[in-house]
Amino acid sequence: MNIIEGGVTAAMGFEAAGVEASIKYQNRKDMALIYSKLPCKAAGVFTSNIVKAAPVLWDKEVVSNSPYAQAVVVNAGIANACTGKQGYDCCKKTAGAAAKCLGISEDAVLVASTGVIGMQLPVERIAAGVELLVKNKADTIEAGLQAAEAIMTTDTISKQAAVTIEIDGKTVTVGGMCKGSGMIHPNMCTMLGFVTTDIAISKELLQEALCEDVRDTFNMISVDGDTSTNDTLIVLANGAAGNPEIRTKDEDYGKFKAALNYVNTTLAKKMAGDGEGATALFETKVIHARTKEDARILSRSVISSNLTKAAIFGHDANLGRAFCALGYSGVDFDPEKVDLYLENEEKTLPVYRDGVMLDYSEEEATQILSAPEVRILVDMKAGDFEAAAWGCDLTFDYVKINADYRS
Amino acid sequence: MNIIEGGVTAAMGFEAAGVEASIKYQNRKDMALIYSKLPCKAAGVFTSNIVKAAPVLWDKEVVSNSPYAQAVVVNAGIANACTGKQGYDCCKKTAGAAAKCLGISEDAVLVASTGVIGMQLPVERIAAGVELLVKNKADTIEAGLQAAEAIMTTDTISKQAAVTIEIDGKTVTVGGMCKGSGMIHPNMCTMLGFVTTDIAISKELLQEALCEDVRDTFNMISVDGDTSTNDTLIVLANGAAGNPEIRTKDEDYGKFKAALNYVNTTLAKKMAGDGEGATALFETKVIHARTKEDARILSRSVISSNLTKAAIFGHDANLGRAFCALGYSGVDFDPEKVDLYLENEEKTLPVYRDGVMLDYSEEEATQILSAPEVRILVDMKAGDFEAAAWGCDLTFDYVKINADYRS
Fold first, then answer.
1. How far apart are CA A192 and CA A46, in angstroms?
2. Where are the alpha helices (DSSP H) in B189-337?
3. Which of A306, A334, A340 to mutate to test the interface with B (most CBs of B within 10 A)?
4. In terms of DSSP bridges, do strands A69-78 and A232-237 run parallel, antiparallel, or are they unpaired?
5. Paired residues of A136 in beta bridges
6. Which range is least confidently modeled, A121-125, A136-140, B18-22, B318-322?
7. Chain B contacts of A382, Cβ < 8 Å?
8. Closest of A342, A337, A366, A332 to residue A353, by C-alpha
9. What is the four-CA torsion angle of B307, B308, B310, B315, rounded to 10 degrees?
10. Side-chain half-sphere of A266: how many Cα atoms within 13 Å?
11. Do B182 and A307 lie within an 8 Å CB cutoff?
């Protein structure tokens, strides 16, 4: 697997664009387009929130019922959630406008929105934006970056990742982009994510690979525990790489899954590290858990704990809070067997052994906690399973951003 | 039911004290005693966290196995959690010291701790504190207040409540005190609470009344979603009122439950409103839910949402976030039937109808949100059940307090 530059335009046959459409924000890009010259197999996972935004309802239809998909239109600033029939009609109009400009069918167009809940989208400006997007689309790395920038809300950096693998002598590329950064929580974490690939694969296996992979990637991050109304992750596969279509879970399928996992993990970690107001990427890794699910639940509970996140922000090794978060996770375990370590890239510091705090150096702990990436390692000493989860610290800026997000 | 002044010394036969023992804090009261001249029936509910502090383990024993209880010793500053065998031994020594000074049995002494996790308690200072407490104990309102002040950690106000009821011609008093204010979350919310009453009641009914009542009081508040290792709520009933002992769920039992509910609701709301860094008490009331449990889950989900809490802090009527929190609560409902209102003591403003945002006045909304007590009213239009939950806003000060709580 080779890590390469780029995002949604890295794979063959994909074009993208990002433009200023003044949907809500002014003087910045706020609409994005992904377009495939060839029809794509589409797979998607969507928010588990009962309150689903209109674009989620539209996309679920397209992924389930359309024979193929060929474009995605995204806007930032307004989420088109809690907007009723008018909101759904707007999705249809957006797809219709894109279909007309691109000369494809309306039901091959996916739509996605992120931003404020409750407001209606300005349909005319959306339609004008679509025209501009189609005019500007290109298959360059630059075009991919512009799309990644256009979907940002309170994100401070754009988020892309791409890799190539070899399948049957053909180079297959998987690339993606996503945005965070508030309302981020597992299942599906609050996010928009788009992955494009030129692999030839059956629709069933594409969906299965995606569903399996999100359990260890996007569903393992949290910024604030709020599962959004708009979470969407879509994978488009157009087959342009020319490999024999993958139809069974063979070695090639394994290679694709590894590539997808790399792209999704990279994007998910970027999202967690760029959580609203964050100053650090905060990872919790649980090892020697009794089951895989235990490991997942335990690690997520720690990275979701407000108190632990505030301690990380304060560079305070208050791992008692992490221990507490393990305890209320719902997983049954013996507290008197648990070891906790504080880690960064350079150092590992044992802080708890067999459930009791050790006499460690606070100075060393503060030093470790001052790194931009911090890890709490939890050894359950109970089995053979492990999992990692990613979050960020809880900061003044998180509160600031969310106390006046709408204004 | 008459609301009266006071707390744990309001009921007949109870004494209390609060003293400076320099356990961790300096120059403030940090140890409290509650003492009953008569042996008490004791009931208790404790944290559901797997990681239970040593005092929780000790108290569960006393409540389950001791024939009666007669005293509670509390310290603030160190939680005696994740302290292993040494921590449990310290509980025994604390109880032993109190038993000796008071001339009662060791297994009639309950202990409770709140503060930093991981540190061991200084046993000698605890023992010295116990002596001082016994020397200072009194049955006055002032003594009750001193105890309420001594158990505070980051609380900004002490929290007490008391009422009297008439049973069979006798005046029965129920009074209590509690402390918050971080690591507060349902089940049991992170807290220490102590209720004393002079009612004569069977131990079984006392425990049952308590268990039922916490579901609608202390388990309906949240400050930060972190369920602590130390949550403890204890009720002591010494029978001094002289009413015929309550042994069946008759009218008198109903009167006692109403009194207990008033005291617990008052204490729980005080705790929520004094959450770390809070500037407002934030209530969510859900009406017309399909089941009581639905109403509880939905209301708690909203008051626990970081994003909604930050919006309350910013006086921003971003009720889309509240709607979102209903949606990820786990309760199944039809979003297109839900109405949302913003309320304070003076005004009610409809903001969402049938799942769609109304064209309301932002100015009026901001005005409502500027009150010290703010309510989101949710009408599910699905049934006959209702519940309320209480939290607070998420503020800069919450982050500040928790970024350097230990220093």
1. 9
2. 203-214, 251-273, 292-304, 306-313, 319-327
3. A306
4. unpaired
5. none
6. B318-322
7. none
8. A337
9. 140
10. 23
11. yes
| Nearest to A306, CA basis, from B228, B274, B321 | B228
Residues A306, A391: Cα–Cα separation, whole Å: 11
The 10s digit of each residue's pLDDT in B47-67 is: 888 888 999 999 999 999 999
Query: Could you tell me the maximum CA-CA distance found in chain B, to the nearest angstrom?
Result: 69
Q: Retrieve residue B33's tokens.
A: 């005693």
Q: Would you state the pLDDT for residue B275? A: 77
Nearest to A167 by CA among A206, A208, A213, A198: A198
What distance in Å separates the CA atoms of residue A225 and residue B396, rounded to the nearest whole number? Answer: 18
Compute the average pLDDT of residues A353-369: 92
**DSSP calls for A74-128:** EEEEE---S-HHHHHHHHHHHHHHHHHHHTS-GGGEEEEEEEESSPPP-HHHHHH
* Residue with tokens 């309550």, as numbered in its chain: B246
The amino acid occupying position B58 is W
Contact A382, B50 (CB under 8 A): no
Joined tokens for residue A397: 């800026």
**With contact defined as beta carbons under 8 Å apart, do B379 and B132 qualify?**
no
Structural tokens at position A241: 């790489």
Q: In chain A, which residue's Cα lies nearest the Cα of B47? A: A328
- B181 token code pair: 């204010």
Q: What gap in Å lies between CA B285 and CA B295, rounded to an integer?
A: 8
Rounded to 10 deg, the angle between the A306-313 and A292-304 helix axes is 60
Active site residues of B: 190
Q: Which residue, among B232, B225, B151, has the nearest Cα to B188 in the 3D structure?
A: B232
Radius of gyration of chain A (CA): 21
pLDDT at A328 over 90: no
Q: Does B328 sit within 8 Å of A185, measured CB to CB? A: yes
